[in-house]
Design a protein that fits this description.
Its main location: membrane. The protein is mainly α and about 400 residues long. It has a single domain, classed as Growth Hormone, Chain: A, CATH 1.20.1250. Helix content is about 75%, strand content about 0%. Helix 11 packs antiparallel against helix 20 and helix 12 packs parallel to helix 15.
């Protein structure tokens, strides 16, 4: 990579998108980290922490589902920058308000609103970077975004230990508002501006359902990410509840489990992105990482060593396994034309985050029938099978020219 490539790779759009995703992940994962202390401060009994936590994470993910559609359509109709500004303003204000929540119902509504705001950040950032970077740097660009962004979970964990949960939310909201200043220097995608002058439908969500091949690609893009949010939304978020069942000796903290998982996720994203660039394929690398995730599911649920240190190490490995998140979002952006690209790149990651709702409901049912371990195993293996089937429905997009439109 020459000096010109490095200058383009670390240009203002890439840096600002990476910082935006950093704040996004900080705010998105902060709830998983402060779930227990925040709920206990609201008077929730120890025995109800998991149930109420599931309700709140479902509220947040429902917001992500709604926001994914809103911001995705807006990104194609009004531009990528409008989403980057609007989404970060909404979730920053919502997270500041989260610090004042006094009841579970207030908490749920604010997590829903924050979820709507959080839904726009990643898709708009990846779309903008994918359209502004040269084809041979596109994969590197999205890898930089993911690697920097995922460190937001690490910072959230450290700050949650230094300050109480109220202040942690205030800091997250403040960081988002500060980022708005940096956003002023970002320019709109030239490819989008060109499409804006053309007589073509932009941001028509229902256009994804008008052709069978387009619909199958859209669904394929969503479901290849299913194991990712099963891992984060269930195995890692509820690690304090899993630990006693797994026979772990010592106390497992959700914040530490999230932190080590996201360090692994950043490591996996960097590795998968570089391998993808080296071998010239997205799909082959995703297939390998899905298999790694399956292996780490078994290691997590049937641990041979029962110390907290080994537990956190397995959380790190789970993160490495699901470290195809950047490729997952890049693939979604590359599958579709400019007039639908933001819609897809924004809805896909948020729809897959939203699958935490049925996954947690299914897990709640199964753990009452076959217990926590076997219930999680059944769901985990099912997500792997679905992901492999979905992988067959999408195109290999490495090196694809992004300057095209979807026309019926």
């Amino acid at each position: 990579m020459n000096q010109k490539d490095l200058k383009q790779l670390f240009s203002i759009p890439v840096i600002v998108a990476a910082l935006g995703y950093f704040v996004d992940i900080y705010d998105l994962l902060l709830f998983s980290i402060v779930r227990r202390p925040s709920l206990m401060a609201m008077g929730v009994a120890e025995g109800d922490l998991q149930t109420q936590g599931e309700f709140l994470i479902q509220s947040q993910m429902a917001g992500l589902l709604v926001g994914g559609i809103i911001w995705g359509i807006m990104g194609d109709k009004r531009g990528r920058l409008s989403v980057l500004f609007g989404s970060i303003l909404l979730y920053s204000l919502a997270n500041i308000a989260n610090g004042f929540a006094a009841t579970v119902d207030q908490y749920a509504w604010l997590r829903f609103i924050a979820g709507i705001g959080l839904a726009g950040e990643l898709g708009a950032g990846v779309t903008l970077v994918s359209e502004t970077l040269p084809t041979h740097l596109r994969g590197y660009g999205t890898t930089v975004i993911a690697t920097v962004g995922l460190m937001g979970a690490v910072v959230a964990n450290f700050l949650s230990k230094a300050y109480d949960w109220h202040v942690s939310y205030f800091i997250g909201g403040g960081l988002g508002l500060m980022l708005l200043i940096a956003r002023v220097s970002v320019f709109e995608s030239g490819i989008f501006l060109k499409t804006k002058t053309m007589d073509v439908q932009r941001g028509n969500f229902f256009q994804l359902f008008t052709k069978r091949s387009r619909f199958l690609k859209f669904m394929g893009c969503i479901f290849i990410g299913l194991p990712i949010w099963f891992t984060i939304g269930i195995l890692v978020t509820f690690s304090p509840e899993f630990a006693p069942t797994l026979g772990i000796q010592g106390t497992v903290l959700a914040g530490d489990a999230v932190m080590y998982c996201y360090i692994g996720l950043a490591t996996g994203d960097m590795t998968s992105g570089l391998i993808s660039q080296a071998i010239g394929s997205r799909k082959k690398v995703v297939a390998v990482f899905i298999l790694l995730t399956l292996a780490f599911f078994f290691l997590y649920l049937f641990m041979p060593v029962h110390t907290t240190t080994f537990f956190y190490f397995v959380c790190f490995l789970l993160g490495v396994g699901i470290g195809y998140w950047a490729l997952f979002v890049t693939i979604a952006a590359e599958q579709f034309g400019t007039n639908l690209r933001s819609t897809v790149a924004t809805t896909v990651p948020n729809f897959i985050r939203g699958t935490v709702i049925p996954l947690t409901l299914a897990f709640k049912f199964l753990r009452g029938q076959v217990g926590d371990i076997h219930g999680a195993l059944i769901i985990g293996v099912t997500t792997i099978i679905i992901a492999f089937i979905a992988l067959r429905a999408i195109d290999e997009t490495f090196g694809r020219d992004m300057n095209f439109e979807e026309i019926d």
